[in-house]
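Slide 14.
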Amino acid sequence: MTVRVKPGSKSPRVGGRYGDALVIAVRERAVDGKATRAAVAALADALGCTRRDVRLVAGETSRTKIMDVPESAAAALAGLFARDEAN
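Slide 15: predicted structure.
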């Protein structure tokens, strides 16, 4: 799945869309991979799975990343995408 990370955000959140990507806002700055690690942790927490279950596939130094998530998290994932449509 594709995600768009917004580092340095005042209020961290997971949800909404940026094109076809899920938005993950994190407080950490994009320095030494801190924002990427925070995004993986935030996505895992939002999906209700372990951080080990969420794997970065591509985009380590980019705001747009591809992550692998467990198939069992499909329903939770759909809910995160829908957050933007509810606003």
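Speaker note: The helical segments are 34-47, 74-86.
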